[in-house]
UniProtKB/TrEMBL annotation:
InterPro entries in the cross-refs: DUF4132 (IPR025406), LolB (IPR050458)
Protein's name in the database: DUF4132 domain-containing protein
Record-annotated DUF4132 domain positions: 938-1124
Cross-referenced Pfam families: DUF4132
Superkingdom of the source species: Bacteria
Amino acid sequence: MHNALTPPWLADDAQLELTFKKGKTPLSHRRWPGEPVPLVKVERLQRLANDIASRSQPLAWDAEQCTAEWQQAIAQAMRCVGKASAAMPARALAVLTRLAEEDSPALLDEIVQLHGVEYATEVVIARQNIAAGHSKYPPRKWVFSHPQKENVYGLHSETYSEFDLRLRKHLSLAEEVVWQRCAEKLIAGLVETPFYRQPFIALLLPERPDIANQIAGRCIDNSWRSSKEWLKAVATDPAVLAKLEETWSSDIFTDRQDSDGYFANRYGYAACAALLREQGLAAVARLAIYAHKDDCGSLLAQINHPQVIRLLLLVADKNKPSQLRVAKYARQFPASTLAALAELLALPEPPARPGYPHIEAKKLPQQQKKRAEGWRMLLRTLLNTHPPLAEQVSPWLSAQARELLATFQQSLPAGVTVAVDNPGLPEILLSPPWRSKKKKAAAPRFALSPLKLAPQEYWQPGEREALAAGKPACFFNDLPLRERIRRKGGIVLRELGFEDMYYLFHQYTLNGQQIHFEPQYHRYSEKPVWNEAAMQALHHGDCNILLQAWQSHLTAGYKPNDCWNLYLLAQLPRERVITLWQRINEENFKFVGAEYLLSILGTDALSGLLLALRHRPKEIFPLLMYLGATELALPVARVWRRFQAQSHLARQWLLQWPEHAAAALIPLAFDKAGDSREAAINALRLLYQEGHHAQLQTVAQRWHEPRLWPALEQLLTQDPLDNYPARTPKAPDFWQPALWRRPRLLSNDQPLTDDALEILGDMLRFAQGGHFYCGLDLVKAACQPQSLAAFAWDLFKAWQNAGAPGKENWAFQTLGIFGDESTVRDLTQLILAWPQEGKSARAASGLHLLTRIGSDMSLLQLDHISQRAKSRPLRDSAERCLQEIAEARDLSEEQLQDRLTPTLGLDNPGALTFDFGTRSFSVRFDENLQPVIYDQQGARQKSLPRLRAEDDQTKAAEALLRLKGLKKDAARVAKRLLPHLENALRLARRWTRAEFQSLFVDHPLTHNVTRRLVWGVYAANEPRRLLAAFRIAAEGEFCDGQDEPITLPEDALFGIVHPLEMDDLTRAAFEQLFADYQLLPPFRQLTRHTLLLLPEETSVSKLTRWQGRSTTCGQLLGIRGRGWWQGSESYFCYDVAQHRLILEITPGFVHYSIDAKAPQQFGAITLYYGAQPVAFSRLDPQDLSEALSTIEIISR
């Protein structure tokens, strides 16, 4: 039907034109032989023979396992050791290359240059049939053998040899007759070649894919998976390729360095490029499991065809580069992308993601839903940005895809163009200053020479001493270096970091443990050749030799985590320590102990510190706080401007060292426009706003330029609305605000116009490093908060679907500006999931956004993350965020915990009204803080209302979404608040009169709970002495046990009364009141289980009352929420101030591997003060009751 049409992409049989990475070329082919091989200097053969002679003295060998012909060749090869012969049989030369373990392509080039391609082919064939190794027992000798045909022999048997693979290049360049003879030899040699080496012979003959097809046909099981995978680079038979589909362990189409568990592959990219060039689009399907890798993905992304983007879409959620690749592809080839998306979304069953890692069955529906949502978003974006595209692509689509495309076209929203005189629209969205014809006046330029200002250092009292008292510093400074070398010898090098197994260094050496230094752990290891030179260099402080030894240590194997021990290095003479510190950072070597070294060297470490900052800024930046130097000012200013994660440290440095900052940054503020100038102005503006204008003026006057200070002050005090970048950043491709929920004006409920949205986008893109354009505050004041939050969430999802490009991180940061409770709720779920997806950095940024939103709900979620996140680093980061918030608000940790209860909209009457158009509903909260829904007539609803046809579908959908969110929020609040209040009872928490009023009486949500508790008035100087008990009545009055109103003193403390603090009459009076008013306490208070010790028990330190009684593992785990915690497999702990109760259990258990019903037996309970047992009489009876009643409840 469409044969006469030309599709807007490549034809299926088109020859692919690809651009290759710099320095990379495809593996050669006779159709594409590439550049000729240059002549090489004839020396490698002789050097190879000499190397064998020097390494193997005396030269002894055993060839009994070989055939007679091979024994003759081995003997001839041995005669050539030290004096290579020009006329050597191919087998003999193959033996020499095995002896020398020579894998250089240049050696094969020399052989071809001397003897021709056919001879080189014979050598390569022979190499497949001989193996050389050392004998297991003395005397040491070479042992030759023939590899078994079916059993893998040797560590590198299943990977290619660069020497052998180089033959492919020479075969590509050879004359046809020569190539034919060589090909026949290679094919004939397959008879004797081990099965696991045969794929590499096929790799030498890309012109004969039938050979690869035959070899694959003989592979009837899953053996030799690594070598068999290389057949994919040559084979063409669909049945063969289907058979090879699950063979992917070597990842043959990706370049990689040699590492633990993987061999180096320098030809992955070249093999992939060659395959695509030779087989075109027919090769794409077999690349499915490699398409998410950079090498393969970057080649596929150049091919304009729906089949390619379909594959890239299926693997896009494997990693961030794959997502970015899809976004770039869609921008470059929109027609192919649109066609692939339409066909994918039209499928009745979603296609599976190819390759690894595999998705668990329970997670598969969520993954497919998320993936399809991203596809729909991209499809809508393409239709919105390229309106004619659907018509161009439709002839090449299936009927189902065309129907789906038509549906999407009809659903696209129309633009909004409201008259510019709309009174509700803020001025900033009508005529922003950066669009004004009247441009900002250019700042004056001053040619200011740098001021000289000596660097300084500052340490808090005791900081240096604390570093010196740390375990690593103490351990490595217990002896003078020379004495250490005399006593320990070569072990000192291992302490310095010359450790073959890095985990021993990090886990044991740095912690002062030495068991791994015992002779039995390294009796068989040979000392490397550089060992003695390194010892002498350490002894004499020779930096150059020591660094050369370190480089040799690193190149001896894959050691990415090896690092210098600066704790020990600091014992060298100061001048040599400074030199080594400088050189270590020049070479970008890793290290540990930088903070300690900085405390020793002070400002002398500055030069090396600047280099270290360049190589590893995240690790080094916190150390800058100790030094004030003009050289540090610009790097710090850039962090303050651009990087939110460490902006608080940058701010601290600038305010701590204002003189150094001003001396370095004032000249830059009047330099040419650019990033450095913007960073300098922002940093100077911070200093000016924080009260350092006098310091700035003093520094400015040192240049003796009268106009400088007025110009600087004008620059720093300009209208905040004029503080925008000189160039307005370009909108990214994912910026499609017409497709998102629009912000609506508070004044008239009108949506923002298309032009206003573009202006809003400009303002959002002005953001850098957590600093936002002040015009956004005007937008927040003019628009409905919920609509802004919805707009920000849609923007964030578009950014995430585009691969979350770091350059456009402002889209993510927008959540912190416009986010509301729904944003907090949804973002928290993502933050908890991101570390498991390899997105820990994004999760940490999400914590900063929750902190910036700053609502009670965001603090509650931070607390939830700090306790419940699976990722330990994420929990720690959330805990640090809470600590920073507490410090900023001048609160203790307990006081912050008291303030983690949101109002859930009870402080805003309109927030709990839900408009469905024709119907409306309201929400109240019951005694368990669960939302209860009522209709307009006041009838209680049993469940969430369902949507009806007569409802306003837009309003009803939004209202229902808010209701669901409110239920989730209420459940989270109740789950935290009720245990928090019970813990306050257990720990005898006290509050001032003002805190009690704001937290428990006036709080619109918490008072639902506090009215059902008995509260107490306590003496300010005796927080444990109850003066009076009372409850909070429904009208807010305070009533005693006789239900008579009382007045609370202003200078007293308040808390939840423990039943042991009340006499029987008072307790009975409150029980009767609660029964009369039908008040159900949120937890057991008046009827709480209590326990008092007998007089003879209070005088001892060990209780045996429960010894021999039993419980279960599940019940023991349950007491962790009541103050107890598991100290080890065999005991639980309970802390009371500086005292600790230890409960012994047998046989004990570990919490991550238990049977909840398994029995456990109680032992004794002992009270300790530090490490000393003490009598139970030292504890308050109330505290003892809370600890021991829990044991009484679960024992039997």
